[in-house]
Amino acid sequence: MRANLLGVINLIQEPDELGALTAGRCLAAVPFGGQYRMIDFTLSSMANSGISRVGIFAHTKYRPLIDHLGSGQQWDLHHQRKGGLSIIPPTIRDDCNEVPGGDLVHFFQNRDYFTRNSCEYVVLARSHMLCSVDFKPALAAHLASGADVTVICKQSKDLLGGKARLVEADGDGRITAMQRENGQAESGLISMEMYIMRKELLLDLVITSLAQGQDYLVEHAILSRIEELHMQSYLFDGYVGVINTLPSYYENSMELLRPASWRSLFARHGTIATKLNDEPPARYTEDATTSNSMIANGCIIEGTVMNSILFEGVHVRKGALVRNSIVMQNAVIDMHGVVDHVIYDSGATIGCGRELRKAE
Amino acid sequence: MSKKKMVAMLLAGGEGKRLGVLTQELAKPAVHFGGKYRIIDFTLSNCAHSGIDTVGVLTQYQPLVLNSYLGNGSPWGLDRRDGGMTILPPYVKQKGGKWYKGTANAIYQNIGFIDQYDPEYVLVISGDHIYKMDYELMLEQHEKRGADVTIACLQVDWKEASRFGIMNVDDTGAITSFVEKPKVPVSNLASMGVYIFSWAVLKKYLIRDEANDLSGNDFGKDVIPAMLNDRVRLYSYTFNCYWKDVGTLDSLWEANMDLLAKKPSLDLNDPCRPVYSVSPNRPAHYAAAGATITNSLVSEGCLIEGDVRHSVLFCDVQVGPDSRIQDSVLMPNVKIGKGVRIYKAIICEGAVIADGVTIGSPGSSEVTVIHESVQEGEQPCVQIYSA
């Protein structure tokens, strides 16, 4: 069934502390989990919830993202008659050369994107929340509560090094306070940065807040109205990984090796779709040894792989050892090379007998 | 519609009787192969890599799975405004419909389809074979020789020669004789079922063949011999890479095992010529702490806790702890419980093998085929095919 929901993935000023991983690509395009890019999780969640119109507000380093998304066919979002996928690049205003900073300006400049369709509600999301969410019950809860804004939240026990916004809610789930900045809390109720509201309210907030000199939707427009707006929390009970720092990237990758997390992401709410590369099945030779690892198609395993995630087309040569590591697309670990506690980005190479280990 | 130099006609209606249970509800071209593919992927990918953008797929027997698998042809780059893939089942005409009587009749019934593109050449191929070939090179030779017909061929084992269309050629490569499935073969040069015809010549012979009530309307048995008889210019095109007709369960098992060789003669990993297929979009496979996997192909979505040796695992296969899989082919969604032993078997799509079951025996010369789930303590209902 189609949902009366417009999906918006907001990449303006992504909360990015991923260092070298985002040197040449935006956070949304960072490879994750053997074959995915970060955006696949949010985008697939939307598509699997019957959302047929998704707008991605791109900001910086989005060329790899556009390559990845293509026409949106993998997510069944290439049907332009029903809306489909729109990638909305930042607009540079005629009167200045700068790309404006806050998301409110970008929403305002593209307000016709919002008005030119019949969706009544909008769900805004970011790309750094690793999860598979069904937005249909969230929308139903939004309608039942009569709230102005519903915030999808997670009771988090350990953020694994990620940074998120803490939320306080009363006994009825009504939000009484929200942190302005993302913090590295140990535990608590966090915002998954997914907000459901009426489209008209969003446009209203955009226009009035801009007029008041504000820049950001959540930090300014919503937070400054926390008393006048009825904001309701909606608790999500599946796996959530907050991935915006290198430790959280590493730790959440390793979480995929635990069956419960794996199931919550991949077997709970539809398929996580991604761009496909036509790689053959992974090939193991007679000397291969593997343990507790996720290995994508196209890999050739001649050596040893333990507690690791190998992306498509990785070649682990004879005598090589990959341990506690994440090795991205098409990397070659040469004969007797050792990779231990390493995030190995695509394009990197390690020669015969060389060792890469975590600094002690 | 714009003119095309060459249009491909892919025969995909084969019943594949000798594949037994595998083709009960499936046309042979849709049978799973190589851990990820269906047999037809190879010919469609060949078309894609040979610059052929107009392909008619002739379906007949059990077309449902095949039709939905092919979709609009986009995995093979064949979703085109001009040309692309067209599925051509037999259809009802004013005088009533007719089943495709033979390979030549299937093309005859679609003369109108081919004429839309006004091609110079027609490539006739079969969706039953596994090979990687550049049809453009074959066309180059066809043009250079000024041939009317070019038939791709390869040397086969003399013992197997009587399974194929067997030809004799002179030193220029011209075909001097052609006999379909001869009892006593006079040569071991076998037709691969890959033909390039100059369309004007083929059309004339198709019409003539159709008018002949005694004809079986088959390329190998009727049309090619008639052309040879009339001294039409028929040439051979020699191919010397991997080619396999997986007509039997044995050869299907064997072809899967061929992929596990140290240097397989069919290279699936060649980045320049990948084999395209419809991907199920599943996550990377997971090898658990206790798993052992050697000499095997393992596809996406698999969850391996046991011991997998010299086997081919399709997507979403699960192998429980303390189970051993050896010399076997596990098709999509097969679930293997704990403490299972499987030797030299083909386990069909979706079968569930309960804890403690043993299938086949080590060192067996026979391939065991399981097409239904096996409960705990139950004797599996097997089909055995001797090698």
Automatic annotation (TrEMBL), chain A:
CDD domains: ADP_Glucose_PP, LbH_G1P_AT_C. Gene3D superfamilies: Hexapeptide repeat proteins (2.160.10.10), Spore Coat Polysaccharide Biosynthesis Protein SpsA, Chain A (3.90.550.10). The keyword Transport does not apply. Residues 21-239 form the Nucleotidyl transferase domain. It comes from the Bacteria. SUPFAM superfamilies: Nucleotide-diphospho-sugar transferases, Trimeric LpxA-like enzymes. InterPro entries: ADP-Glc_PPase, GlgDAde_trans, GlmU/GlgC-like_hexapep, NTP_transferase_dom, Nucleotide-diphossugar_trans, Trimer_LpxA-like_sf. Its EC number is 2.7.7.27. Keywords: Glycogen biosynthesis, Nucleotidyltransferase, Transferase. One of its GO terms (molecular function) is glucose-1-phosphate adenylyltransferase activity. It is an enzyme of class 2 (transferase). NCBIfam families: glgD. Belongs to the bacterial/plant glucose-1-phosphate adenylyltransferase family. This is Glucose-1-phosphate adenylyltransferase subunit GlgD. It comes from Paenibacillus montanisoli. The lineage of its organism: Bacteria, Bacillati, Bacillota, Bacilli, Bacillales. The gene is glgD.
Automatic annotation (TrEMBL), chain B:
InterPro entries: ADP-Glc_PPase, ADP_Glu_pyroP_CS, GlgC_bac, GlmU/GlgC-like_hexapep, NTP_transferase_dom, Nucleotide-diphossugar_trans, Trimer_LpxA-like_sf. Alpha-D-glucose 1-phosphate binds at Y100, G165, E180, K181, S191. Residues 8-260 form the Nucleotidyl transferase domain. Its EC number is 2.7.7.27. One of its GO terms (biological process) is glycogen biosynthetic process. The record marks Q60, W99 as: Could play a key role in the communication between the regulatory and the substrate sites. One of its GO terms (molecular function) is glucose-1-phosphate adenylyltransferase activity. It is an enzyme of class 2 (transferase). It holds the Pfam family Hexapep_GlmU. Residues 291-361 form the Glucose-1-phosphate adenylyltransferase/Bifunctional protein GlmU-like C-terminal hexapeptide domain. It catalyses: alpha-D-glucose 1-phosphate + ATP + H(+) = ADP-alpha-D-glucose + diphosphate. Keywords: ATP-binding, Carbohydrate metabolism, Glycogen biosynthesis, Glycogen metabolism, Nucleotide-binding, Nucleotidyltransferase, Transferase. It comes from the Bacteria. Pathway: Glycan biosynthesis; glycogen biosynthesis. PROSITE patterns: ADP_GLC_PYROPHOSPH_1 (PS00808), ADP_GLC_PYROPHOSPH_2 (PS00809). The keyword Transport does not apply. Involved in the biosynthesis of ADP-glucose, a building block required for the elongation reactions to produce glycogen. Catalyzes the reaction between ATP and alpha-D-glucose 1-phosphate (G1P) to produce pyrophosphate and ADP-Glc. Homotetramer. Belongs to the bacterial/plant glucose-1-phosphate adenylyltransferase family. This is Glucose-1-phosphate adenylyltransferase. The gene is glgC.
